[in-house]
């Protein structure tokens, strides 16, 4: 006889609290198509974001909604108190799987980037982890501030 423990997470690798930003994305693109927003306001990816997408991103089958030529690249950023000084880093999908089993709660933000026209937009966000609170990771001794 097993009682369900409140907030127990049976599979920490399954995303929860998922937010899809498709409506905001569609609204931004429509505003540009209607002439209410300049293309330069939409296609303003920081050079560091484009480099991150180039070297750490995952190419998708989705075509850029602005240039309609290039496939979009996704990058996943992780945030969480448990991550301490490592919060805000880019992580590959296999790292997210591992981290979901090692941490209680990490928030993942997926950003899509076009290497062609510099379109970028948050695609989705979600939470991973086993729900067990842990101490934040410590800053390494050789960490430069």
Uncertain spans, ≥5 residues at pLDDT below 50?
1-6
Instruction: Measure the end-to-end span.
Output: 52 Å
Please tell me the total number of domains. Answer: 1
Strand content: 25-35%
Architecture overview:
The protein is of the alpha+beta class. It has one domain (16-128). It is built from four helices and six strands; from the N terminus they run E-H-H-H-E-E-E-H-E-E. The chain has helices spanning 22-33, 39-42, 47-56, 93-102, and strands at 16-20, 58-63, 71-79, 89-91, 106-113, 120-128. Strands 1, 2, 3, 4, 5 and 6 form a six-stranded antiparallel sheet that branches. The protein is elongated and about 50 Å long.
What features would you highlight for this structure?
145 residues; 6-stranded antiparallel sheet; alpha+beta; 25% helix; disordered N terminus; elongated
Task: Please specify the SSE layout and strand pairing.
Elements: E1 16-20, H1 22-33, H2 39-42, H3 47-56, E2 58-63, E3 71-79, E4 89-91, H4 93-102, E5 106-113, E6 120-128
Antiparallel strand pairs: 1-6, 2-3, 3-4, 3-5, 5-6
Summarize the model shown.
This protein is of the alpha+beta class and 145 residues long.
């Amino acid at each position: 006889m097993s009682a369900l423990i409140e907030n127990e997470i049976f599979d920490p690798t399954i995303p929860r609290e998922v937010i899809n930003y498709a409506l905001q994305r569609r609204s931004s693109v429509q505003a540009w198509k209607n002439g209410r927003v300049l293309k330069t306001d939409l296609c303003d990816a920081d050079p560091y974001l484009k480099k991150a997408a180039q070297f750490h991103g995952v190419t998708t089958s989705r075509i850029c909604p602005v240039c309609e030529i290039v496939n979009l690249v996704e990058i996943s950023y992780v945030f969480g108190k448990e991550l301490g000084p490592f919060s805000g880093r880019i992580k590959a999908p296999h790292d997210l799987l591992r981290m979901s089993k090692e941490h209680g709660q990490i928030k993942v933000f997926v950003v899509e980037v076009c290497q062609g026209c510099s379109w970028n937009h948050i695609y989705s966000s979600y939470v991973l982890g086993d729900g067990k609170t842990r101490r934040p990771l410590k800053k390494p001794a050789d960490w430069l501030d």
